[in-house]
Design a protein that fits this description.
It contains 24 helices and 16 strands. The chain has about 700 residues and is of the alpha/beta class.
Amino acid sequence: MLTTILVNIARFVVGLTFIFSGYVKAIDPLGTLYKMQDYLEAIGLAGALPDYLLIAAAVLLAGLEFCLGIFMVFAIHRRLTSKVILLFMTVMTLITLWLVIANPVKDCGCFGDAIHLTNTESLLKNIVLTACAVLLWRKPLCMYRFISKPNQWIAVNYTIVFILVTSTYCLYKLPVFDFRPYHVGVNIKRGMEIPPGAPQPQFETTFILEKNGVKKEFTLDNYPDSTWTFIDSKTVQTAEGYVPPIHDFSIQSRAGDDLTDSILDRRGYTFLLIAPDLSTADDGNFGAIDQLYEYCIDKHIPFYCLTASGDKDIKHWEDITGAEYPFLLTDGTTLKTMIRSNPGLMLIKNGTILRKWSHNDLPDAADLHGDINKLPIGQPDSHTAAGTMAKVALWFVLPLFLLTLADRLWAWTKWLRAWQKKKENQIQQQLFNLSLIERKRKMRKKIVAGNWKMNENLQEGIALAKEINEACAADKPNCGVIICTPFIHLAKVAEVLDQNVVALGAENCADKEKGAYTGEVSAAMVKSTGAQYVILGHSERRQYYHETAEILKEKVQLALANGLKVIFCCGETLEEREANKQNEVVKAELDGSVFNLSAEEWKNIVLAYEPIWAIGTGKTATSDQAEEMLAYIRSIVAEKYGKEAAEDTTILYGGSCKPGNAKELFAKPDIDGGLIGGASLKCADFKAIIDAWK
């Protein structure tokens, strides 16, 4: 249970992280491309791969990560997904370990521009995810499925199509979510401000000077006189400070003049054509750019092209597009951060970013008529993050949710139908079992056996036997009747009994076949009197005559060998009952003396459970206590000889069974009769117990 909980927690940690990481990179393929270029430059392979291969790799990598996250959350292809994620995390962890050691880039880019982690933070994050991935790889089947296996292909294909279409759309236009500091609505100048009281970065500058052939380092505090010759200087940052969201923005003329403030402080609209690299910029829509520039001239709206390219590339762009708008210079990384398009278009008003366009989605002639204040392009972009999230939910989350809901409802109804069918089958099986048990019970021989013990002289015994025989002959019982008498009665009682009505049994026999054993009576002697049964293992024989399991084992074997049927007794003392050891005691008694018999020999065994604390004490085990023990005895017989043999075995209850409680006891399904002590010495009482079967 704990393992299942941990696996499913790990599954959501990994799955949701992969979904977020994959999605923020999928909506910004160019950002992932730029990060790949940083990595290639760090290992000395800048420009080794063409951009179209890198952009394809960026789309596929982000798509793979997103799909793996969805597959993990929905437990789709659990084994394969967990293996791929473990491999993915192993590679990523090794890369971040290299980043921590070598520090070639400051941010690994695992969450795009949404969340920036240091290399150390990325390594710790990857270690946690790798540990989760190992657990998922070891126990993939502990993940609960949200979508059944036959319907998983729908989620798989829909997820792949969704993320690839999303990446393509964002590549063609612009990212649907903009996590960069130059998003719509930002005032660029305010984004560069440092709040009052914010900690400033600290720097220390040292100077290397030389005098008389000796070089020495100095600071501003101990700078020497003019007799020293300056050689070099170096500045080191000694403390971090507040870094504003926009900290590297500047605009310069091609002559070197700083135009940043004049452009950002201007009241009204300004169009900025952003082209980080004119040598690779897309020139397919230069006509739309030229139309927009002519509109700006007509409406007296400033229009500038910001680029990081040199004069040669600018001249080439002018030649192929006929561009007449002014070109200004801005850092290339800044331009790539401002807009994910080369070129891209940005409209600012009073220094605030109002709108952005990809070069594939520029305003056309139909958008450029009249006062810009009244045109749609002159109004703030109506696309909000909340609205975009709602669209993503509508196009992806909602369909998956509905698929999951429909699948679970169908699975639930299917499960419900299966459960109902199972319950019906169980009820039918129970009814069948009950009827089978009842039939078996009816087929199983019912016996009421009297154990006279050391009572009645010969004449009294003969008289009692005749009375019982006559009573049973006159009113035929619904069960087998046995009377077990002392040895001196056997031969004479056999003469007065009709053993088709009342069978005869002995109360004991010797554990020796014959020999010099004064006072003992062998099984062969018992059989010669006409007796059919013998009681063995009675608690009084165990208690007073110290009969052990081994002695009883020998007696049972000799009795069976001489054609006698054995009524074998077992039961616990009061102390053993109070210690809750009754099952253990009874099983040991049977194991030691009769469970060694063959299946064929077992057919001649009748068991009698006699709680020793209820023999001759007036105490009686309740019918439930008796039933519980006899059911247990039947279960261990089933373990030894099989269920069918157990169902055929007659098990009696012995322990102060009287006419008043016999009917209740005999009503229990596992009680097949009684081994009767004192009540068997009175014909009326004995007959009343026999009649309890009616």
